[in-house]
Amino acid sequence: MAASETAVLATAPGTPAPGRLASVRHRLGWIGMVCTGIVAVVVLAALVGQFLVPYDPTVGSVVQRHLGSSAEHLLGTDQAGRDIFSRLIAGARTSLVGPLIVVVATAVAGSMLALTAVWFGGRMDAFLGRVLDVLFAFPSLLLAILGVAIFGPGLVTASIALAVAYIPYSARVIRSVALRERNLPYVKAAELQGINGFTITLRHILPNVWTQILTGSTINFGYAIVDLAALSFLGLGIQPPAADWGLMISNGQESLQQGFPEQSLYAGLCIVATVAAMAYLGERLGGRAAAGRSKQ
Amino acid sequence: MANIIEISGLNKTFRTSRKHEPVRALDDVSVAVREGSCMAVVGESGSGKTTLARVLVGLETKDSGEVAIAGTLVTASLKRKEQRARARAVQMVFQDPNGSLNRRLPVGSAVDEVLRAHFPLTASQRKQRVSELFKSVGLTDSHAQSLPSALSGGQKQRVAIARAFAAEPKIIVLDEAVSALDVSVQAQVLELLHALRRDRGLSYLFITHDLSVVRNFADDVIVMRHGQVLERGTADDVLDRPQSPYTQLLLECAPKPGWKPRRGVIEHLNSEIAS
Fold first, then answer.
1. Can you give the pTM of this predicted structure?
2. Three-class DSSP category at B11
3. Chain A: residue nearest B107 by CA?
4. What is the pLDDT of residues B63-112, one digit of tens each?
């Protein structure tokens, strides 16, 4: 922090002393600031949106269907007369909780598999590698649909099914960075001192691959939003009348043909903005981690 | 005096690829280290001296031969209990202090976890012990809280030494432990190692390619080449009255005050190595 502040001072002499905000802006760039803002608004909506919505997001009246934007209904109403703005805010929660489940489950299971493979190496590594290869062969969405077909539709089943589909990708990345750490002399040194493998993995290897796990998770988060929206769109994720962005796109299809694109359009914009913001921040995080590594 | 390390007829071959001939890293090597003494293992890169150290500490498995540490034969089995017993008895200080310390772990914690692995001590007892160990290598408690990146090369190597001592081993293998340090720091660290050995009655296996530090530091020397022991004896004997032509050549090449590269020596050495 101090270093970047002095950097600001050094590059722009004569300007007023930059505050905390200026230093954050300097580090993120203005795109980063916008992305952080988008993510903050979506998270806020997910956390406290239910107290802020002007109308009940699940109840509408048919006489008020397909109203345009007005002071009363900020973004208009959908084919069932429900307030679109309220539904977007209410949808933020389900649209974030699902991907969160996917990301956490993927990171935990992926790290466990990768670290196990790396620690034992040899046959264990080869065996787990083959298992992941089999998983790789299935397109992720297909695997998720299979999971939902077996265990029934719903947010949790869809999320877990999707997490299983993501695991090989995250495990492969974590394995490659963990393998590099595994071969560093400090791991050998710890082994020689009689410290057991579990402790070495948790205390030595995991903290050194943590940034990569985090970066991968933010990128996965974007994919998960899109894939879960696709599942909801297909009617396999969130069930109506609950609000969800993917579901709203799907519900808006007929209205779209009738000349009322609002519902699908706004929900789609929400998804695009959130995914783009998450992906950009994830990339930045990854770039910084890479820069930090090369400095060492 | 009893021998703390007895190695006899040790063989180790590496297969690098199917195309190349297997490399005989250790060829019928026998070494005995007296309890409380320091044995230097000297040789050029690829002579097998590091492989010897790695087999001794258990980083590498042997093909054949016997290794006995403090009278107990070391088996190839990977049982946890035996591994830990060996870790208690033999510790190692690596060449590169940057690599052998975890860059994200405060160095005090690195020593602490060795104590935790081997002794039933409470957290406060361990803290006390870490503090003692740091003091014994000339570092303070504030050093213990820093990350390796905040320490100099010499300080890092002192931490590595403190860590090696933490398990209270009988033998410490110093694998080029001072080679990466600059000369003045080298002298300090060697002095520290010498004092610690005197105080605790330890034995050292000192792997080095640097003959200039051997005379003052080691009691006995073996000279290795192509995985074989060429010459063995007391440090004074080997350094003052070398028997094998290779040792003579090594001594001739060692930089001394007023030393100038003599035409022909390097070429001669190269042709010797090629043979």
1. 0.73
2. strand
3. A186
4. 888 888 887 777 665 566 666 777 778 888 888 888 888 888 899 999 99
Q: How many residues does chain B have?
A: 275
Q: Is B263 left (phi over 0), alpha (psi -120 to 50) or beta?
A: beta
Tell me, letter by letter, the H, E, C secondary structure of B214-259: HHHHCCEEEEEECCEEEEEEEHHHHHHCCCCHHHHHHHHHCCCCCC
Min Cα distance B105 → chain A (Å) is 8
Q: Among all residues of chain B, which has the CA nearest to that of A184?
A: B99
Q: By the 8 A CB rule, do B87 and B114 touch?
A: no
Q: Which backbone phi and psi does B257 adopt, to 5 degrees?
A: -55, 130
The alpha carbon of A198 is separated from its chain's Cα centroid by a whole number of angstroms, namely: 29
Of the pLDDT bands very low, low, confident and very high (cuts 50, 70, 90), residue A62 is low
Which residues of chain A neighbour B130 with C-beta distances below 8 Å? none
Over residues B115-154, the pLDDT tens digits come to 988 888 888 999 999 999 998 888 888 998 999 989 988 8
CATH among 1.25.40.10, 1.20.1070.10, 1.10.3720.10, 2.30.42.10 for A74-295: 1.10.3720.10
Tokens of B170: 């009988």
CB B60 within 8 A of CB B47: no
DSSP annotation of A142 reads H
